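Internal ticket - ligand job 308, (5S)-5-amino-3-OXO-hexanoic acid:
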Amino acid sequence: MSKVIISCAITGSIHTPSMSPHLPVTPEAIAEQAIGAAEAGAAILHLHARDPVDGRPSADPAHFMAFLPRIKAGCDAVINLSTGGSAIMSLDERLAGPLAAAPEMASLNMGTMNFALYPMLGRDRDWLHDWEEPFLRGSEDLVFRNTPSDIAGILQRLGEERGARFEFECYDLGHLHMLAHFRDRGLVKPPIFIQFVMGVLGGIAAEPEHLAHMKATADRLFGGDYLFSTLAAGRQQMPMAAISAGMGGHVRVGLEDNLFIARGVLATSNAEQVSRVRTIVEGIGREVATPEEARAMLGLKGASRVGF
Ligand code: KMH
Ligand code: ZN
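stdout (structure tokens):
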């Protein structure tokens, strides 16, 4: 089996500042936690931006540029920018930062779907910012749009024109078939890095049987041309990462996907989750890939060829 690539998704656009004091939203905190995650063993840093004033999701190039050079100066991890941004943004808004930064990697969401965050409203909270509650409630009637035309445009503008390679976010079996369609059109070329995204309400649930079927389907569609990683949102994060590593796959952790380190215990940093998954990966006899090893495995252009 190959070495395991640990991705860490540092802040995302799902959780809101009131949910954890450890969720980084300022450029200083995002950079510090990203570098800490890299030092703990993450080869890839998956990044969204936030508005530093109130922590709301942003893909403004200025917000990205406030932390990207710091992270690049502080570690050699691969920087992977989200093109998903947040479902509340237009495609142009989502792409503004990634197009300006021309990263080595970018996420690419493989289908239009529901992305329901409102169950997190749950109990009453004292909200720090007035955008948070309507943001979560609004997901009850919101479409996360990723049409074939959107996907083709991202492949062209970030891939062909800027040399980025992709973390293909597949939230269900149909997304694997959409990815195979783009491979058949010659727009996606191996090695194909698939992220099985589990546990989002609107996508496939985080259950071992589903992961086995996702992998069997990807094996049939992509044969030796792909690598897979798994992320599970919420409390299935570590169990599914363990199963993914045991099946020969790669893993993703980070506060974008889960705020906790144990039941009822908030993770105090992204690095804490990376350290935990590293212990799991090494405990089952696999080695963790360095950023240079991940670059070679994924065919990346290199850190010197980005726009920041
Ligand atoms: N938020 C995750 C469930 C993206 O950034 O493009 C998936 C994700 C999507 O990371
Ligand atoms: Zn993301």
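Auto-summary: The chain has one domain: 6-112+145-305. The two ends are 34 Å apart (CA to CA).
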